[in-house]
Write a structure and sequence with these properties.
Blueprint lengths: L2 H9 L7 H9 L6 H4 L15 H11 L9 H16 L8 H14 L17 H12 L6 H21 L9 H28 L5 H9 L2 H17 L1 H5 L1 E4 L5 E5 H17 L2 H25 L1
Antiparallel strand pairs: 1-2
Length: 302
């Protein structure tokens, strides 16, 4: 899978912060032989087998590796020079496949493949987990006021919008108004649903204080999920009327299809609803269970 496909996948999974847990497991696995891990270098291609699920997983974990955030300017320039030498057929003797693959990994993590410009650190794919995780923590903070609820929802959607824009497909120019429309729609829907649900919960007289607190912990999920779907529809609604390109098994465009566009938008919207579930539903659920266990232990001890 090439880098442009990665950017399209990100547009369908802006809350992929949960991948960090899988990434830690993969990065900590025992090293495989270099001949297996680093095949003969291919410029612009993935070093993992894209015909298997595991290969695609390794490819994406390689791209979001946060260690590339700490690459120095000197190291970056060395990687760029090495890739230029490979392209021009003037590689110095002794350069290995490992060095070439690592150089390409660093370049793809920092440089936009279409514009050739550096992507700001907080908005790189490799920076999405470390810079986005604090935002998720803010969304899940207990006993939030209306002001803090609005702030964290706005910050989350603003960060997502910046990452979307900086990793956009720039092969076809997209009006800035389209991004702004999607951003406003996402922020408006997230804030409206989060504040509205908080108001409903606080006014629910039949809820006990403990139940009210428990329900409030799950409010960020419907707010974020609805904002994600709204963003998809506003950013890509023209595809429903114009259709999207259909490719054959060799990658050649054979036409456009409105049915394929509807199918793609439905799958993308569903993905944006499902992906936030682990990071926004599991922590409140685990905390509720732990609090219940603590209460039971206290009662037993007393």
């Amino acid at each position: 899978m090439t880098r442009p496909h990665l950017r399209e996948l990100y547009a369908a999974s802006e809350l992929s912060k949960t991948a960090s847990f899988t990434a830690l497991c993969i990065w900590d696995t025992p090293a495989m032989p270099a001949s297996t891990e680093y095949p003969p270098f291919r410029l612009g291609e993935s070093r993992f087998d894209q015909g298997s699920f595991y290969g695609r997983l390794r490819h994406f974990l390689d791209v979001i590796d946060p260690r590339t955030l700490f690459v120095s300017e000197k190291r970056f320039n060395e990687c760029m020079n090495l890739l230029d030498q490979f392209k021009n057929g003037s590689l110095p003797p002794g350069v290995t496949n490992v060095q070439l693959w690592e150089a390409q990994k660093i370049k793809q993590a920092i440089i936009h493949p279409d514009t050739g410009e550096k992507i700001p650190m907080p908005f790189r794919m490799s920076g999405f987990v470390p810079f986005g995780t604090p935002v998720v923590v803010g969304l899940l903070l207990p006993n939030q006021t209306f002001a803090s609820t609005i702030f964290w929802q706005w910050l989350n959607q603003s960060h997502n919008a910046c990452v979307n824009y900086c990793n956009r497909n720039a092969t076809k120019p997209t009006p800035m108004s389209t991004f702004f429309q999607g951003y406003l729609g996402a922020v408006s829907s997230a804030v409206t649903i989060a504040v509205g649900l908080n108001l409903l919960v606080k006014r629910a007289e039949h809820f006990s204080p403990a139940t009210r607190i428990l329900v409030q912990r799950f409010i960020p999920f419907p707010a974020v999920a609805s904002a994600n779907v709204c963003n998809v529809l506003l950013m890509r609604h023209t595809e429903l009327s114009e259709g999207i390109s259909v490719l054959d098994d060799k990658g050649n465009v054979v036409g456009t299809s409105k049915m394929a566009a509807r199918h793609a938008l439905m799958e993308t919207s569903l993905t944006r609803v499902v992906l936030p579930m682990p990071v926004l539903l599991l922590p409140p659920l685990i905390m509720a269970i732990l609090e219940r266990c603590v209460q039971l232990c206290v009662c037993v001890c007393v």
